[in-house]
Fold each of these.
Amino acid sequence: MKFSLEFNPSNYTVQTLTIDSQTITYRAFENNVYVENPVDTKYQIMNIYVPEAYYEGKTIGSYTASTAPIFMPNTVGGYMPGAPEKPGKHPWHGGVNAAFAALLKGYVVAAPGVRGRVTQDEKGVYTGKAPACIVDLKAAVRYLRYNRKAIPGDTEKIISNGTSAGGALSSLLGVTGNNADYEPYLRELGAAYERDDIFAASCYCPITNLDNADIAYEWMYNGLNDYTKVVLETVTGEKFIPGITPPEQIRRVFVSDTMTEEQIKVSNKLKGLFPSYLNSLGLKKADGTELTLDANGNGSFKDYVKSFVIASAQKALDSDADLYEFDWITIKDGIVKDIDFDKYVQYATRMKPATAFDGLNLDTPENDLFGTKDIKAQHFTQFAKEHSTAQGSLADASIVKLLNPMNYIGREGTSTARYWRIRHGAIDRDTSLAIPVILAAKLANNGFDVNLEMPWGQGHGGDYDLEELFAWIKKICIS
């Protein structure tokens, strides 16, 4: 069945929602299929929400129906399918979610659904393996631009937002605007013939740069052999089924273990591979200092990563946090002078055994992501392929490339978002701190405006600082 790309402005309901004494009335245009030839109409849809005040000729703050930025949140986690976000409470931290907060601030919300690694059709064929997730987001952006005259909001001020794998997709969407590599996939779906670049990207703990994530993880956590991983279970005791169990029925259980001798050997090998990769990037600080590592993994890049942790500790100290209990933090006259990085890592603890991302027995979400329409999971690094305990096949390099934003920053024929906000919790162990720092440095080195922080005491998660997020958005939109 072929779907129309024309947005129907009369197909809506007026809804009023009150959370924590905050009320917003808005028009809800839900379940808009954003491609002509969808393969999954459960996820290839977009919900669009517009403050009712705009239809009454009113303004919200300095925004009108034509000037309001368009906030585009995705709900992807673990590279699973993500349903379109609806205004309400956040499923994890219990506060308001980003869609609700955005409407209160006067933004138009365009929340696309996205296929994920477990989506299948009625014949059991996988329909959401890479690069489906980023292709869907691009198609959603094109749909908005195609309907710019019918949908309120400024399509030149689209701001994406996501957490974890969703943060990675937000970064990928921001980096790869209009790049021809994605065109065949967009054409196959019948995406609109429009641009897919965006104005800004908000990325919480982005699980990205996957083909180098294992070596970055062991650069940081090598030597820590104990780990505590997160296992998802249902609150009812029923079997947890990825992509099926509703978020409100999921709980996180922490399971501790120790790496095997073989995993420790793998960790040692992977750690040794990271310096050459890092040095090949040619990254620099704002003052021109080269960011490098020696063969042991020490050097200016490590000091640079540490500087973000120091800044985080200082911000916490300025907010009256008691940091004097930590003997690895040096504080003098209210100023955080230094931290012992190795002791800090021990404090943060390891979460994943080696290999953290490209599992040698094909057991990670990322292995699942790089499967094919009829292969559930594949390796995506040469190291894991060579050390595979599952005789797994290797994903096509051209597909792996499409999921790594590092391949597109500064690339000719690509329109990259001008503004970036990256947040990675100071005790978030889902990926190495090196990963967001590398992304931010590469962006900054290519002239983009980057705001990177590592909030103190924050683990893996997102949308925990919505007031700060929307203050940042307001600032960049009026600059």
Amino acid sequence: MAILSVRHVSRAFEGLIALNDVSMEVEAETIVGVIGPNGAGKTTLFNLLTGFYRPTSGEIWFEGKRVDGLPLHRIAAAGISRTFQNIRLFSNMTAIENVLVGSHLHLSTNIATAILRLPFTVKQEKRAVQSAVETLRFVGLAGRENELAWNLAYGEQRRLEIARALAVRPRMLLLDEPTAGMNPGESVDMIRLIRALRDDLRMTVVLIEHQMRVVMGVCEYITVLDHGEKISEGRPEDVQKDQRVIEAYLGTGALLSEGAS
């Protein structure tokens, strides 16, 4: 059963069509890749899924409910969370503080109860801290809870951003180029983490990625965009042989050769 259904979605900006009649379905507990050249509309799609943009036309359904047009916080509360291509951490806050920021949707405290330090408030805060510690451990940052975000290595910052996204308790996680800027070893570790998200947390993962070794190594299904249109979709072994996909990548066989290596 599809957890996400994108139905004939288009998005235009002052006459410029960023996405044109794109449809796709994502099955629950799968790892799906969205690929395409720069300017293909991949990030626009993510911005539509998370409510940052509204479709010019079309519909977006998540777990049987229509979500396009909802404000960002309601889409997050519905179970969709994301990371960004450019890391967006609070650099002067600690790792655990960054994760706690992401958990605010599930706290019922307010300014008054926080000031009064009511018992249920204290209990909620303790649970949130314990959950944040467990999340940091899951992404491989055990023992780094009190390290300032800007002191973490680049790969660790990427993991911290995922941890913060997990604090929202999503059922679907959108990863925007999770291995961007990573060396081969860090990329392999990220692949393991992405698999663990699905295998251990039973989460649905949709990722934008330019490294074809990562896409072919972790994704079970791929959607390909080019100039705002879907040109191919299917299993990795089928997509990488699609002539339209090969032509979209500079008209060479680079995609096929890289994916096969």
Amino acid sequence: MGIGNFLEKKRAQATYWALTEQHPLRYLFMEVTRKCNLACRYCGSNCTPKEQGEEMPIEKWIELLRHVADNFDAKKVMLAIMGGEPLIKEGIYDLFAEAQKLGFPYGIVSNGYFIDEEAAKKLVSLGIGSISLSMDSIPEYNDMFRGKGSAEKTARAVNNLHAAGYKGILEILSSLTNVTADHLDEMRTFVAELRVPRWRLVPVFAIGRAKDHDYLVSTEQLKNILTYVAKGRKDGKLPVPEFGEESYLGCFNDDVRPAKFTCNAGLTVAGVMFDGKVGACPELGPDFIQGDLKEDTFTNIWNKRYQIFRDRSWTKKLGPCAKCKSFKYCHGGSLHLYPDTKTPISRCFYDMLGGEKGCKELHEAG
């Protein structure tokens, strides 16, 4: 390890430990609904057009925004508004208007079905800064998993946003299965034709409906995805691909991501679920819920709980983490891959690649 790399890792460690103590809120997931007009075959939240339980009405979400603005610096808290499909939530544009009024930067994750010309103009006028549109592959394979015509709807949404003069961050978010992972070249061409500058690739993991199917990428596919992204980030072409947030990747990380790996769940990232329960990322299981807005305030929950997020020593006792020499840099990996605090991580890309040796070989081969 060179001295520069060593110092960089030491700085990353120091930053991590500072975050465990200070836990400044910087990112808030708002899962405003579990309802969705689609029922994707791998959906981790089991979303369908039906409600999964009693959802917080939009008035309560607006109350939450005002509470957060009163207790934190709104300009420093990014709101990720999602579902389900957030644009089917009754009153959703009132929530956007309140976020704009209070000074929050905010964005949505959407399937694009409801971004017609009028909706695109509304989103632009309400100052939305980030839009992630879900499309996994070229239409033939995308629609296999997401429903017939879904790729066309996403493409239409992109065109409407361009026509409305949208200037914020626009990206295509691709959930990769062992089918769509083999069609990256065709998909990049498709995204380029849509004039979308960013493309984020996230391998599906085994939660929700994906648990019932063999959709996970293989080790060989993972290597191919990472190599493809690394080359795509250097070739000067659009869209610029980016690998998802899951897993420490050792020395290969900088080849595929714009930032170092840290699972910030509970450190800088919180999440409020559709029913008012408070945790971190929506993908985390019920054992990681820290409170409920029906019983306590968000600020009290954020400041007084989250111990299992801010002391992750429990992960060191489980599975591959127990003997991993990179634990001090990784701190147990992505917490959404733990069903609870007693079960080992469901997968570790670093381990799948063969640890630092495997990551180094990929880096050198690229």
